[in-house]
Amino acid sequence: MFVGAVLGLAINGGSLLTLLLVPTGEQVLFPANIPLWSLVYELIASILFAALFRYGRMVWGVVWVASGIVLSVAILTYGSADLGFSPETAQHGLFRVGYSFSSGIAAAYLVQVRPRISRWCIPFALMPLAFFMWPVGSVAVDILSILFVFPALTIALAYFETDQRYIATELGGLSYALYAIHHPIVKQADGAGLLYVPLFFAIIAVAWALERYFDRPLRRHLHFLISRRESSPD
């Protein structure tokens, strides 16, 4: 996230308050790197998860349902699910991220308590994709996709075994860094034509390097500090 803020400032300019994750824009919360808004909300959700962990799954069940209801009302009000990135819709971004975050918690729990399924069932799990044959721009499609289709696909696919676990793990780790840095670079290269092809691979390479040599060692070090603190006598 910090690297994404630095990169956004280097390419697009802006306030140094972005480095402190303080919104500074009038049209969008983070002009230097627009996707930072969701990363900030995910950080807030992670802190809340740690704070509420002791209270069990029921709390996140309430968050899941409440966020889904409020998000649905917001989508109906604005006529779009593209909420959270601007000052006008910032409060609704909390519920947008709250629902997706709690959906992830639900998926992780369900996978733990139920047996995995053979990969041969994957085609059946992908059948709900036919849902997207509906007209684009429909508010009803947005709500149904966010509340039901996407969570159902995520949970269903999480049950399936894969022989390429290393690849799946690497892609999962790569996704966060890629999301954090892609927007300033792509925006700067707008209209580059065929140069998008090497740029595509360059962004992936940079994201992989950030995850491998920056994010992963940092997570490992934090895990070590937490483990040492938990094992030390009071």
Automatic annotation (TrEMBL):
Locate the transmembrane regions by residue number.
34-53, 60-81, 93-111, 120-137, 143-160, 167-185, 191-210
Q: Which residues form the Acyltransferase domain?
A: 6-210
InterPro entries, A to Z: Acyl_transf_3_dom
Q: Does the keyword Aminoacyl-tRNA synthetase apply?
A: no
Keywords, A to Z? Membrane, Transmembrane, Transmembrane helix
An example Gene Ontology molecular-function term: acyltransferase activity, transferring groups other than amino-acyl groups
One Pfam family hit = Acyl_transf_3
Q: Does the keyword field hold Disulfide bond?
A: no
Spell out the protein name for this chain.
Acyltransferase 3 domain-containing protein
**What species does this protein belong to?**
Aurantiacibacter marinus
